[in-house]
Amino acid sequence: MRNYPWQLYAVFVLALVASSCQPSSSTEAGSTPEETAGEAEDPRYDFTIEPGKRVGLVTLESASKSAVLEAYGDLAKADSVHLSEGFFGPGVILFPENERNRVDIYWETSVDAERPAFIRILGANGATDWATNQGITIGSTLDTVEAINGRPFELYGFEWDYGGYVNDWEGGQLSNNLSLRFAPSAGVDTPMEVVGDMTLSSDNELLRQARPVVSELSLSFPSTNLLPLMQGDWQSVSDPGYQIRIEDGKIWHYTNDRLMYTARLEADQGCQTSPCIVNDQQPEGFCFLEKGEQDVQCNLVLSCDGERLEYAAIGTAGGTLAFERME
Q1: What is the pLDDT of residue 36?
Q2: Which of 251, 240, 183 has the alpha carbon at shortest distance from 216?
Q3: Measured between alpha carbons, how far is 178 from 2 in angstroms, rounded to an integer?
Q4: According to the 3-state scheme, what is the secondary structure of 184-238?
């Protein structure tokens, strides 16, 4: 199950440790051997990602804005970062002069000022020196990611706002603190059957014809409490008639403006309560409980960036629910 993006939620513990843990040998055009040697000795050029634990020097224990700026010095600057279409927010950019290894970091300070809401890596020309400790990086193929996950996973169809984002790891091995976005390989015709607002399995034969590769890495750390960020009215991405309202410790579910049910909400940081543990398996990330009159439902937040909310109901066959904030 994915922990999305940004999020969410939403995330990889990856192999090739020997190669990914070494400093990158690539340099900017015009770098001298002395500069290359200096980078090899500078811990700021450690491009290793351990999802949920660290991205280079940005660690779970030291991830506030001030800590990141101090750790990276002249290789970081406070600047606005892209949040969603037409929206930007104050954050930090690492390696701002090097598009290949640039990192955008954003904090939702009203929720958690100590840990970023997301850390995003796009690379340049389909490549970056950043890689997870099992080898996933910009340009990794669908087959590679599926093999590391240990089973097929779900992702959205291409060429729309959320095109290519992984939707659900389907209980595989990949961490909920790493979210990936895929794009068709350059120069490859993309079948129209995999274009648009839909959910696809990674083993879909038409999807594979597009030879998708990773185009974006989004990482997050376990958050203390996402409920404050989840407050408000939300509309389902797949069914506009389905809406929810989260306010003052309660959730209301509506279908075509008709109230279906309400429940009390309770944060479960770390998904530690019994409703969240199924078959002795405890999900990673932030969960919230819906406490009705007769039962308790545990939900794992996969992604929540203030404009988009994704969560999965633990122990049910309902799959992932994705919402956009209503005006």
Answers
A1: 58
A2: 183
A3: 8
A4: CCCCCCCCHHHECCCEEECCCHHHHHCCCEEEEEEECCCCCCCHHHHCEEEEECC
Q: Is 246 helix (H, G, I), strand (E, B) or coil?
A: strand
Report pTM.
0.66
Token pair belonging to 233? 């009215």
Domain count along the chain: 2
Query: Which pLDDT tens digit goes with each residue over 268-284?
Result: 877 888 899 888 777 77
Is 8 inside any structural domain? no
Rounded CA gap, 237 and 111, in Å?
24
Q: Looking at residue 86, what is its pLDDT?
A: 81
pLDDT tens sequence across 25-41:
344 444 555 455 567 78
User: Does residue 71 fall inside a structural domain?
Assistant: yes
8-state DSSP, 157: P
Neighbour-count burial for 90-115, b at 16+ CB within 10 Å, e otherwise = ebbbbbeebebbbbbbbbbeebbebb
Domain, as residue range, for 175: 17-219
The mean pLDDT of the chain is 85
Please measure the distance between the N-terminal and C-terminal CA atoms of the chain and give it in whole angstroms.
29
Question: Which of 325, 312, 167 lies closest to 236 in space, CA to CA?
Answer: 325
User: Is residue 108 located within the same domain as residue 243?
Assistant: no
Which CA distances in Å does 51 have to 114, 117, 132, 197, 234? 17, 14, 7, 28, 28
**Is the pLDDT higher at 315 or at 255?**
255
Given strand 58-59, what is the order of strands in its sheet?
58-59, 54-55, 48-50, 131-132
